[in-house]
Hints:
By secondary structure, this protein is of the alpha/beta class. 32% of the residues lie in helices and 24% in strands.
Amino acid sequence: MREGQLLIKDAVYFDGAGFVEGDIAAEGGKIVSIGRAGTENRSFAEVINAAGLFVLPGIIDSHTHLREPGRADREDFTSGSAAAAAGGVTAVCDMPNVNPPVYRAEILRERRKLAEEKSLVDVAFYGGAGFNNTDELAALAREGAVAFKTFIQPLPPGREEEFNGITATEEGQLRRILQEAARLSTRFFFHCEDHELIREREEFLHRTGQEDYSFHHKSRPAEAEARSVATVLRLAEETGAKIGICHITTPAACQMVKEAKARGVDVMAETCFHYLLFDEEAALKWGPYAKCNPPLRSREEVEGLWEYLLDGTVSMIGSDHAPLLQAEKEAGLSKIWRAFSGLPAIEAMLPLMLDQVNRGRLSLDKLAVLMSENAAKIFALYPRKGRIAVGSDADFTIVDMGKRAGLSIEKMYTKNREVNRLYDGLAAQGFPVYTIVRGEVVMRDGLVDLNKKGHGKTLFPTVSPAT
């Protein structure tokens, strides 16, 4: 009798068009059969009875900051990937603002080695694209960067070493980056906020004494996002570059993306789940513990963002998992502008979005596309990732849509869980109960198998960049 690696019995799984029934067998980290034929005369090292559950293609988080190397006190590949597994995430796409930032191929190569020693889930890497490393971008693409990220901002005070070399502040600098981007097949993403407008607003708010917790979102208004998105779209149209807008938050910016797509601009937009769920009231209540960039928006803008998510203008949902130290958040308790921005959110993302499915705001089919299939396609990982089909990686997120529980920071795996005040105690219905990475169960019923450290592999795109 031949032995297989994993059998998921009585699965109701997403096949790209809808949910269908069948047994799923995996061997050597790949899906080898779907259906009962071919499994009767085999034994399996692991058998999961999925009756009453739903099997999604492994969730891919399009936007994470695992912080290593340089700031492992905030997060490292082991703690961050354990948090991902706890949240039902089988692969993460990690950003380049580490220390040193990923602006050269050899830095990416070293990050890859570190991840494969320590990660429980698979990891894809962004390269950093700044105005002064355009001659390195092709080498970074060849080294396996699945995308590039540019921060349209000056170097943040106190965090210069994390962002040095991956920023742009002037239109001429952006044009130079996008001209090089047009030569490559890799997509270039942008953090779009107009830093000059933000500076002006900050000065005005300080001068007029508007220094409560509203300072942050008032200083980064919707107009700051819209101005920056408009500039990037115009330059992408001029150069023919493939671009992405990170963590889009406003209907106005979404409408610009929609219109640009209609004109033939190769652009996609990502949002993050907290922009779909929380508004300025949460920022006023939680202060530094709800501080993120871009900021939380008005309730009207949150509802408008949902419209563009459901009509397909927004293609991906990520977490923007950004762990920070307690002291870095507490610095803003009395003066909000002193707190660092970021939320370590990866463990809350899927449960809170499954809760939205249960509330009828989107379908489970749409969630699978937004949080797995589209990301796999955008980062050129499809059909290895993002699909349940013979030959694809045996990555599965199995969810119990009837499970009700409250989120608890005490049970989280992220290294600085205590800053997750925004999510602590929130009730949700719908939770991941298995996270399976290439046929290996790394999370079962909320408990992560830390012995799977090093199981994660680094991912390369399936298309080669132009040279």
